[in-house]
Amino acid sequence: MNDMIRIDDLVFKYTRDDTGEEVNAIKGVSFAIEKGSFTAIIGRNGSGKSTLAKNINALLLPTSGFVYVNGYNTSIQENLWDVRQSAAMVFQNPDNQIVSSIVEDDVAFGPENLGVESAEIRRRVDESLKAVNMYHNRKKAPHMLSGGQKQRIAIAGAIAMKPDCIVFDEPTAMLDPKGRSEVMAIINSLNEEGITVILITHFMEEAAEADRVIIMDDGVVRLDGTPEEVFSHADELREMNLDIPMPVELARRLRARGIDIPADIINIEEMVEYLCQYR
């Protein structure tokens, strides 16, 4: 089986604490994600994308339907250990994930809970911190670090668990442009090494770096395809109050002026290269 994640007719409902109203957050969603792929999931606030991410990691369990992670059914209690070892998760706010007062101790927390032997934990911690360029900060207190550095520590903690998949739930939302760029470089590097990446984001430029983009709206999948395919539906995206990447919008305007911009140009580097060659 080549599926890292398989979701079959997933429904997730919850009850609001303040009103007692039942909310149908996920409405019969089905799709599969291949091992080693990079999938971005986009949607406005309330679209269900973060709820979907938490179902993948078994932090939430389906109201009905099924979620399989590396073949493990998340609804079976005995599988939860294997599910969370297979698919780690990195959240929006790194402060909510950091549990220790020393960086290297925080990265070691996950492997320790998995019962990994001490020598292997040491090796994993060092490798993970080097992977995110934070090894030199291993003895520091996390609260002394910047937001971007804290998020890199959170990612190192996920890497140290040796998962096959990492779900990133808006990991750059609280970062400045430099921090966002650093985190995206790490995410791409992890995917190049064979880790399945699922990126929940509202930044279209980040989604453009993925192999596949899934657009969620009101608990359902509205669009699903390559970035080129999905971003070609500009009018539909706007109906969902979503932007399109700036290079895609620029390409649309240039085409309207008679310049034949190729449809597969979706990032700034490709656009600049093409325009520099254009005569």
Descriptive tags:
about 280 residues, alpha/beta, 2 domains, six-stranded mixed β-sheet
How would you describe this structure to a colleague?
It is globular, with a radius of gyration of 20 Å. The protein is built from 11 helices and 10 strands. It folds into 2 domains: 179 residues, Rossmann fold (3-Layer(aba) Sandwich); 35 residues, no CATH class. Helix 3 runs parallel beside helix 5. The strands form 2 sheets. It has a 6-stranded mixed sheet, with helices on both faces. The chain has a 4-stranded antiparallel sheet with strand order 2-1-4-5, covered by helices on one side. The chain starts with a strand and ends with a helix. The model has no long low-confidence stretch (mean pLDDT 89). A hairpin with a 6-residue loop joins strand 1 and strand 2. The protein has 279 residues and is α/β, with parallel strands linked by helices. 38% of the residues lie in helices and 24% in strands.
Number of strands: 10
Our measurement of the CA-to-CA distance between the termini, rounded to an integer number of angstroms, reads 49 Å
The CATH fourth-level homologous superfamily of the largest domain: P-loop containing nucleotide triphosphate hydrolases
Strand order of the largest sheet: 6-7-8-3-9-10
Name of the top-level CATH class of the largest domain: Alpha Beta
Rg (CA only) = 20 Å
Shape: globular
| Helix/sheet category | alpha/beta
pLDDT averaged residue by residue? 89
